Amino acid sequence: MTVESVRPAAPQAAELSTPPLAGGGVPGLGHGLKLVRDPLGFLARLRDQGDVVRLRLGPKTVYAVTTPALTGALALNPDFKIDGPLWESLEGLLGKEGVATANGPRHRRQRRTIQPAFRLDIIPEYGPIMEEEAHALAERMGSGETVDCTSESFRVAVRIAARCLLRGDFMDERAERLSVALATVFRGMYRRMVIPAGPLYRLPLPANRKFDRALADLHLLVDEIVAERRASGQKPDDLLTALLEAKDENGDPIGEQEIHDQVVAILTPGSETVASTIMWLLQVLTEHPEHADRVREEVESVAGDRPVAFADVRKLSHTNNVVVEAMRLRPAVWILTRRAVTETELGGYRIPAGADIVYSPYAIQRDPRSYDGSLEFDPDRWLPERAKDVPKFAMSPFSVGNRKCPSDHFSMAQLSLITAAVASRWRLEQVSDSDDTTRVGITLRPHRLLLRAVAR
Ligand code: HEM
Fold first, then answer.
1. Ligand 1 pocket test: which of 405, 443, 445 has the largest number of ligand atoms within 8 Å of its C-beta?
2. Residue 176 lies in a domain
3. Which residue's alpha carbon is at the smallest distance from atom 39 of ligand 1?
4. Which UniProt keywords apply (predicted)?
5. Structural domain total, the chain
6. ipTM strictly over 0.95?
């Protein structure tokens, strides 16, 4: 008798139990109201009710995963793909053929095309642009005027992504237009997702017209960027060239629509996420001057009197820990969804084919089961001797698996550099009508962070 023949067979998904239904649902509406009114608090409390729980959103059942280990299992399991209402509404506005929403062979091919632009050994080539943009931001902050952190953060995020990845002199003026268009589009997109009142958004109201104009300008800008690069006849070694030269599964050039959607699919996640994180970093430097001082001292110890440089970043361990800790408490991407391709299992529960699964990096990264003093801002928890105690997948702001953000190194480098450049020059204070409470949108960011920079 072999060992295999006595081992009990793995349970079939059909024999597994159904996850418990979360409490507090309202007849007819289920948990929808709670999710609209207080999404962060609601998601953060779900783990008390189980590792996997069912939510009712009107007539629909959605499965919420609440433990770090299961979010990892979900992200790494090919039984789950990118799909569901969040992705459908993104596709409707931004295009269906980009890497962020594709699945299967097309997604794998697209990842192969874009990945080289984000390789760790390529990032230093972007160093001079990141330095220039980080110092330009610090310079603008010192104008004596109140700093509107929303527009400044968008500006620097879009300019870095556009100048590094789609490089060209023409980018400067376009990067400004892009940042204005993207900020408006993201605001409107979230409204359209949480209140899917289709016909209402077609009415000729000022807000709708502003949104339509911004969306049209975003698509027009991308067309202009592509057309101009083609007309120049130049092929610099960058992401845009990689996209223009990409071949499909049959070895044929990819279509115009896919090129367009790919540029949109890289610029849009690349700007809102970074911009939101920069806003939180500015807020953290304001709220925790002791850490701002430590960042400044660290920069001084590494760079002396000269301005901090890209090459210094890997030596700025406390600065880096400040960035990681800000991302833990305020992850730009606070909710993620997947759809089950087939009937499958998660945490010992049956998940039916076609089910939508949701999880919240915000809830996971603030869970007291994973972190001592989980709500305290404590960058030193990322010192190697303490970081080893953090459970696996309890800190994955860039996700894991085949959908992992391609830009983790690119993003961390610019975020640390910006933090260092700003903290080494200024002490920051909020002005009286600033509002740094959390605004829940496609990403999390402060409602309206307004700062004054004071010379150190
Ligand atoms: C995907 C986070 C910056 C491009 C993702 C995902 C996360 C994420 C969590 C995975 C989504 C999922 O699992 O469903 C972040 C954060 C950023 C950041 C926190 C900065 C603080 C960027 C930047 C770019 C970028 C700068 C490009 C310039 C993308 C793309 C995908 C993606 C193209 C889709 C990948 C795929 O589906 O294969 N990002 N991101 N991200 N991100 Fe980022």
1. 405
2. no
3. 405
4. Heme, Iron, Metal-binding, Monooxygenase, Oxidoreductase
5. 1
6. yes
d(CA 436, CA 149): 10
Look up the CATH number of the domain holding residue 87: 3.30.43.20
Q: How far apart (Å, rounded) are the C-alpha atoms in residues 290 and 305?
A: 21
Q: Which amino acid is residue 280, in one-letter code?
A: W
Site to substitute for ligand 1 among 65, 110, 407, 414, most atoms within 8 A of C-beta: 407
The residues facing 147 across adjacent strands are: 451
When comparing pLDDT for 88 and 405, which is higher?
405
Q: Which domain holds residue 36?
A: 1-92+337-361
Examine residue 374 and state whether it is found in any structural domain, yes or no.
no
Is position 355 within any domain? Answer: yes
- pLDDT tens digits for range 13-55: 557 999 999 998 888 778 888 888 899 999 999 999 999 999 9
Query: pLDDT tens digits for 279-299?
Result: 999 999 999 999 999 999 999
Task: List CB contacts of 444: < 8 A, sequence separation 6 or more.
Answer: 40, 276, 280, 330, 331, 332, 334, 362, 438
Domain contains 60? yes
Q: What is the pLDDT of residues 398-431, one digit of tens each?
A: 999 999 999 999 999 999 999 999 999 999 999 9
